[in-house]
Amino acid sequence: MLETHYTFADEWLRLRTDQCERADGHVIEAYHVLEYPPWVNIVAITAGDRVVFVREYRHGAGRVLLGLPSGVAREDETGFAAAARELSEETGFQAAQVKSLGTYFANPATQSNLVSSFIALDVQPTEKRQLDPNEEIESGTLPFVEYLQRSWSHSPEYQGLHLAALHLATGYILRSRVPRLASLRKALLELA
To answer: Which domains does the chain have, with CATH numbers?
Structure first.
């Protein structure tokens, strides 16, 4: 990188413009990078093997999308805490135990932030939702297998990073030897 400067910054996003030189000497005058805070999402599964979903208008897409509880990790909290907080705020469900499914780049070509995905089992509705002033979210539950099958529909109804978390959760369930997941694992194997 030869030079860098910021052309926009607020609490949600910073736009960095870099002047870069490739190994072959070619100079890229303006390579734009979006710097977002870390993001989290959570695959929350009830005792009845239902996944907790949110349905929310996404302005960038200009449509209502089906997804998972998700949001920004605050500077003072871990990904685990952020995922549990977002689950509670957006759906009113509480997670007794949260496990990591992994951390990955959102879009490394033009974004610097990481996304961390989590799974929580046997979540229960225990609180009133606490939506942010900008949020208008519908939440509910669907059978996990049905939610997974709907994600195979080739519809742009879903958010890509949430699909990644859903498929990571499916892999976790299939590999897990946790007795609690035996019936869900069996149902997933029957889909094959």
So the answer is: 3-35 (no CATH), 39-191 (3.90.79.10)
Partners of 119 in beta bridges: 43, 99
Long-range own/partner contacts, residues 20-25 (CB < 8 A, 24 or more apart): none
Buried b / exposed e along 132-162 (16+ C-beta atoms within 10 A): eeeeebebebeebbebbeebeeeeeebbebb
Match 């949430």 to its residue by tokens.
162
pLDDT, tens only, 12-32 = 899 999 999 999 999 999 999
DSSP 8-state class, residue 180: G
Structure tokens belonging to residue 121: 């089992």
Question: Among candidates 79, 63, 59, which has minimal Cα distance to 71?
Answer: 79
Question: Could you give the angle at which helices 144-151 and 182-191 cross, rounded to 10 degrees?
Answer: 30
Largest CA distance in the chain: 59
Cα distances from 11 to residues 43, 54, 89, in angstroms, run 26, 24, 20
Q: Are 148 and 119 contacting, i.e. CB atoms less than 8 angstroms apart?
A: no
Structure tokens at 187: 């149902």
Measured between alpha carbons, how far is 130 from 88 in angstroms, rounded to an integer? 8
- Give per-residue pLDDT as tens, 72-111: 999 999 999 999 999 999 999 999 889 999 999 999 999 9
Q: What is the pTM of this model?
A: 0.92
Tokens of 102: 């992994």
